[in-house]
Design goal:
Layout: E1 3-6, E2 11-14, H1 33-48, E3 53-56, E4 61-63, H2 68-73, H3 78-93, E5 99-103, E6 106-108, H4 110-116, E7 120-124, E8 130-131, H5 143-152, H6 155-164, E9 167-168, H7 170-176, E10 181-183, H8 185-199, H9 205-214, H10 216-223
Parallel strand pairs: 2-3, 3-5, 4-6, 5-7, 6-8, 7-10
Antiparallel strand pairs: 1-2, 8-9
Helix pairs in contact: 1-3, 5-10
């Protein structure tokens, strides 16, 4: 399950279980309802520390996005489920602390969008892809998700990513402006902590106020309830 590791200079929010392997019950860190609750609790604990937040994971995946098994079993509940995902995005986007994503592995779909909610994004170079596979999977984007992508990465890159489902490795993601930099996996957390240290003095409610004002159109789109007619 997701957990927090407090260090001298940051609160590390891990999206999976402790150790080298991911949670055996959710090996891809998919957005199950219980997982979303656990991530929100971990985020609460991280915010309470008064430190910058590093969002990361261990193993093969950062997160593989939506819980497709839940969607298949509870399709009528999909709009509410997607609104819960939007709420997590909003929390990260408006956090009163710098949020650094340290992308350790694959970030697909809703998981790729979660990386875009961070203030600074670092991705490993050796393995792992960032991708929005919805077009290839015959799935639409919600208004909030489309707005998140449009606001957070360059327009030409967003258009390519959304319409082609291209997979970007770390170097390609950095060159495209999807992430701020790509580093070797052994340097991933070290670099994230360096960025956290540079921004530690910014922690406080004023940072949240600034983020909300700066990202208001995006936040308004994420607040719109997902209509059943979307699908």
């Amino acid at each position: 399950m997701p957990y927090v590791n407090l260090t001298d200079d940051a609160a590390e929010v891990f999206l999976g279980a402790a150790g080298a392997e991911l949670d055996e019950h959710n090996p891809e860190n998919r957005f199950g309802l219980s997982w979303l609750q656990e991530v929100n609790q971990a985020f609460d604990d991280a915010l309470a520390s008064g430190k910058p937040i590093i969002l990361t994971a261990t193993g093969k995946y950062f997160t593989n996005g939506l819980d497709t098994d839940y969607i298949a079993a509870e399709f009528a509940k999909l709009p509410g489920y997607l609104d819960t995902v939007h709420a997590l995005y909003t929390r990260v986007l408006t956090a009163p602390a710098p949020v650094i994503a340290a992308v350790n592995g694959h970030a697909f779909g809703a998981g790729a969008m979660l990386t875009l909610c961070a203030d600074y994004r670092i991705m490993r170079t050796e393995r792992g892809f960032w991708s929005l596979p919805e077009a290839a999977l015959n799935m639409p984007f919600t208004r909030g998700m489309a707005s998140l992508i449009r606001h957070r990465i360059p327009d030409a890159v967003a258009t390519e990513a959304i319409l082609t489902s291209r997979r970007y490795n770390g170097d390609a993601a950095a060159a495209a402006g999807i992430v701020d930099e790509a580093v070797a996996v052994d340097d991933l957390l070290t670099r994230a902590h360096a960025v956290a240290g540079e921004r530690a003095h910014l922690v406080g409610e004023n940072l949240s106020v600034i983020k909300r004002g700066f990202r208001l159109p995006l936040l308004e789109d994420l607040a719109v309830q997902t209509p059943p007619t979307l699908l």
